[in-house]
Amino acid sequence: MAHRLFEGKEHAASYWKYRISPSDHLIQQVLDFLEKQKGRPFDLAVDVGCGSGQGTVLLAGHFASVVGTDVSPAQLDVALEHAKGPNITYRQCFAEELPFGDGSVDLVTAMSAFHWFDRPRFLQEAHRVLKPRGCLALLNYTMDMELSFPDCCSHTLNQVCKEFYAALRPYRSPHLGPNSVELYRQAYDSLPYPDKEWHECVWVRRAMPLSSYMGMLESFSSYQALLRENPQEANRLSKDINQRLLSVMKETSAETEVEVGVKYFCLLACKPQED
Questions:
Q1: HSE (CB half, 13 Å, CA atoms) of 105?
Q2: How much is the pLDDT for 14?
C-alpha cells in the first residue's frame, strides 16, 4: 500500500508556496528523451502524485492534454487554484490504479512522489497505461541542498543546514530507506526496458527569502513527523536554525533573500514497441 502523507490543507498550501519545482532545463531533458524515443506530437501526459501541481503546469505547454493525479483532495484543491491553461485537468486516484486505458499515455511522470508509492505496483501500472514507445520520467531531489549568500562563508552556512538535516534524520520514514537516490537507482535497475537513462546532479537554483527556505524544510515529511511527535521541539529546532543562519549571514530579517540550490536526479525510460 502506498504511504499517504501531505494531505492536510495547510500542508498542501505549503507545497505550492515553498517547494522548488524542476527547472525548465530539466523538463526539457524529459521532453527531448520522449521526442527521441517516440517523436511528436505529444498527446497525453499524466503527472502522478502531482501534489499542488507545480510540475503539472510545466508540462501543459507541450502536450494536447495534461492530467495531474493525486490521492489527496486537499492537494488537488490547491492545484486547481493554480491550474493554468484549458488543457490541464486533475483526477483523484491512487498512483497504483490510474484511470486511463491500456496504451493511452505518451508520458507518465512522478515528480518527488514515486518514493511514496507501492513502487512495484506503480511501475506495472505505468507500463500498462503507456503507449508503445511512451516514456516514464521519475524526478526527485536530495536533501543536501546548498545555501549561499553574498559575502558569507558558504561552508559555515551549510554546516548549520546539515545540522538541521541530521536532527530530522531519525524521523525519516522507514518506507524511504536510508537514501532516496539508491531507491530510484533500484527502480532504474529493475526496469526491463532497453532504452533508459539516469541523470544525477542536475542543480536547480532559486532566490527566495530565508523564511521560504525554512518553510520548505518544515514541509518535509521528517519535520512533519517531529512536529506531530513533539511540537515544542520542532518549533525550537526551527527557530534555533533560523537564528543561527541569520547570525552567520550577519542579518536580522528572515525575509532576507538567499540562493537555494537543489540537486535533482531523474530516471527516464521508454516502453518498448513490443512486449
A1: 26
A2: 58
Q: Cα–Cα distance between 26 and 11 in angstroms, integer?
A: 26
Cell triple for 190? 529493475
Q: What is the 3-state composition of the chain as percent helix, strand, coil, each rounded to the nearest 5? A: 45, 25, 30
Q: Which has more pLDDT, 106 or 53? A: 106
pLDDT for res 12: 52
- All 3 cell numbers of residue 9? 490543507
Q: Hey, CA dihedral for 204, 205, 207, 212, is it positive or negative?
A: positive
Q: Other CB atoms closer than 10 Å to residue 237's CB: what's the count?
A: 20
Residue pointed to by grid coordinates 538567499: 258
Could you count the other beta carbons within 10 Å of the beta carbon of residue 35? Answer: 14
Could you give the C-alpha distances from 59 to 32, 85, 240, in angstroms and in order?
Answer: 13, 11, 39
> Which DSSP symbol is given to 42?
P
Question: What was the pLDDT predicted at 243?
Answer: 97
Q: Nearest-CA neighbor of 31 among 52, 12, 50, 58?
A: 58
Is the CB of residue 182 less than 8 Å from the CB of residue 140? no
Rounded Cα–Cα distance for residues 89 and 74 (Å): 15
* Nine cell digits for residue 112: 518527488
Predicted local confidence at residue 3, as pLDDT = 47
Residue range 121-162, pLDDT digits in tens: 999 999 999 999 999 999 999 887 899 999 888 899 999 999
Q: How many residues does the chain have?
A: 275
The grid cell for 146 is 546548498
Strand partners, 90: 68
C-alpha cell at 113: 512522489
- Grid coordinates belonging to 57: 503546469
Element (H, E) at 155: helix 154-168
Name 232's bridge partners. Answer: none
